[in-house]
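Students often ask why inverse folding is considered easier than folding. One informal answer: many sequences map to the same fold, so there is more than one right answer. In these notes we will look at a single instance of the problem. The structure comes first.
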């Protein structure tokens, strides 16, 4: 008669209960993960009032404004805060502040529209207190695009913007609070050729097409006024010297042909080369700046001066020296008047 193997039966029973416990544990973890996933995918006030988001942006530095590429290089710190009651805890054991990954909780999904190469310098985490107040901090450095308005260049004032937009939520779902602000130590910024001023943040609706679904946006802006001292020494002064050289041609005796023609030709070539090289520092735009008008008017004056030089040489070589000298005297008197007119037209138009 066979004796039952009670030890094997007990072991099988324990194994069965162990499998059941493991299955229940995995199911509970999966359910918890699913709940956390749903929580991070839906905003705190889903179906109700828009969630209030506060964005504080501190400009640490503006290294430079690159006219030709229409970008500016900035270094700034941003703090984004909101309230999520689902993250509140009542336990006295929990820490006053918890650090969690941004991808583990709900966040307003913000991006910077005019980003042209910003680097994130801090971990993508947030701190959460016992009441469910969330703060995410990040430092960003790199290039941002700007739409330069250069009609008045080099006497222009530009608007440097940082366009924060939620790529997932509309204005009916999140709103930017009135506590959002831009702060900066404007007198310590690196761009010495510019004078800066901070503007109040503006909430707006961003949309790629008229009538399309809009996204909640917040516009931070600085005004930057260009310093003109640099361009006085690099544009106005050299151009004035070229015009002075063209004027000096008419002080030479009318019968000294090689010197007059050489100086007149040199002024034309110098002005054209200088104007072209200077224009290469600006973006390709379809309108004239103040600097372009100054170069254009100066070019016309130099060409007229060259034509008058040719006429005086012609008159002197055909026995009409008195008429040639009279024309040279008239040009000497008129030249400063037209130079002043060029300056006035450049500044006032």
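Output (designed amino acids):
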């Amino acid at each position: 008669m066979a004796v039952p193997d009670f030890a094997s039966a007990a072991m099988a029973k324990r194994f069965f209960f162990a499998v059941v416990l493991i299955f229940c544990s995995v199911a509970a973890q999966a359910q918890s993960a699913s709940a956390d996933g749903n929580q991070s995918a839906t905003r705190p006030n889903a179906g109700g009032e828009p969630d209030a988001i506060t964005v504080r942006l501190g400009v640490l530095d503006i290294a430079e404004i690159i006219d030709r590429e229409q970008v500016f290089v900035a270094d700034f710190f941003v703090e984004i805060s909101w309230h999520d009651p689902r993250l509140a805890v009542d336990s006295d054991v929990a820490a006053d502040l918890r650090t969690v990954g941004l991808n583990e909780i709900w966040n307003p999904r913000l991006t910077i529209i005019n980003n042209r190469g910003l680097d994130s310098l801090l971990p993508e985490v947030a701190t959460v207190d016992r009441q469910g107040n969330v703060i995410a901090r990040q430092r960003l450095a790199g290039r941002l695009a700007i739409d330069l308005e250069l009609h008045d260049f080099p006497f222009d004032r530009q608007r440097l913007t940082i366009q924060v937009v939620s790529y997932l939520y509309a204005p009916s779902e999140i709103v930017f609070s009135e506590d959002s602000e831009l702060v900066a130590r404007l007198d310590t910024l690196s761009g010495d050729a510019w004078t800066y001023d901070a503007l109040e943040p503006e909430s707006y609706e961003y949309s790629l097409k008229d009538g399309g679904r809009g996204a909640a946006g917040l516009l931070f802006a600085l005004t930057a006024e260009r310093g003109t001292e640099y361009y006085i020494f690099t544009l106005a002064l050299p151009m004035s010297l070229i015009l002075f050289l063209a004027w000096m041609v008419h002080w030479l005796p009318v019968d000294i042909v090689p010197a007059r023609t050489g100086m007149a030709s040199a002024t034309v070539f110098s002005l054209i080369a200088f104007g072209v090289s200077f224009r290469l520092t600006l973006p390709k735009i379809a309108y004239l700046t103040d600097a372009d008008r100054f170069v254009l008017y100066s070019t016309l004056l130099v060409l007229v001066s060259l034509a008058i030089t040719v006429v005086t040489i012609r008159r002197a070589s055909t026995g009409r020296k008195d008429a040639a000298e009279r024309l040279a005297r008239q040009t000497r008197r008129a030249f400063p008047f037209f130079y002043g007119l060029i300056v006035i037209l450049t500044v006032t138009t």
